[in-house]
Amino acid sequence: MLCVSAHAADFCVRAGGTLARYAAAGSHVRVVVLSPGARGESNEFWKARGGKTTEEEVAEVRRAEARAAAEILGVELACYDYRDQPLTVDYERLMRLVREIRTFRPRVIITHPAKEPYNPDHTTAYQATMEAAYYTGLAGVEPDLPVMTPTQIFACEPTQPLTEMTGFVPDYFIDITDTMDAKMRATAEFRAQPYHVERYRTRSQQRGTQAAYVAGNPAIKFAEAFQRLTPWCGRLFP
After folding, report:
1. pLDDT tens digits, residue range 88-135?
2. pLDDT tens digit sequence for 191-210
3. Domain that holds residue 146
4. Can you state the percent helix, strand and coil of the chain, rounding each to 5?
5. Element (H or E) spanning 3, and its range?
């Protein structure tokens, strides 16, 4: 499983329980963090320093937080260290992501939803991921690496779960009741964004209530929601 995360904390707060579940089951799970989020994702840190810090200092703090969280979840981490707000993806950066996917060869990719009015960096990450995944099937793009068949791609939670604003309609719920503790411990590592702990504890509980109803299983207490971005094709329904 490969997760393409716009910023340092996104992979953890939006999909950390799912990533931890896959890792615990023996899957190789890799997270690509496109940007540490030093500019727009670290307001509390900047305020605490009275603005007397540097982007690189903040970025190193965010990278350290991401590394600590990844270790708790049991996943592999790669930090690309691009600037955020705005996050930009040019040709070279797009090809780097193509090579990442072709080298790792995931069965499942998780990234952000297509429409993120509350954080345009997330939309950029989505667009880059979808383009890169498409290019992995073209023999003339980065031809020294073998091509891939289409990969299953899912969108994780948007910043605000408002369907009328984001178009995010979850059709997959992953039960993370058993990995919720790891997710919360990992989330607590992001001290530059302390509000994430309560926000995503509540979000996971709300999704758990939905999942328990959909599955008819009251044992589900916490869940993460995803939206399939690529069609399913098989002889049986998944």
Report:
1. 999 999 999 999 999 999 999 999 999 999 999 999 999 999 999 999
2. 999 999 999 999 999 999 99
3. 2-228
4. 45, 15, 45
5. strand 2-5
Q: Is the pLDDT of residue 52 over 90?
A: no
What CATH number is associated with residue 209? 3.40.50.10320
235 lies in some domain: no
**What's the pTM?**
0.96
Domain count, the chain: 1
CA pair distance 117, 81, nearest whole angstrom: 23
DSSP assignment string, 28-54: --EEEES---TTTS-HHHHHHTTT-S-
- Is residue 146 a part of any domain in this protein? yes
User: Is 52 in contact with 105 (CB distance < 8 Å)?
Assistant: no
DSSP notation for 114-155: S--TT-HHHHHHHHHHHHHHHHTT-TTSSTTS---PPPEEEE
Residue tagged 């998780």 (tokens): 110
pLDDT of residue 45 exceeding 90, the answer is no
| Rounded Cα–Cα distance for residues 199 and 185 (Å) | 14
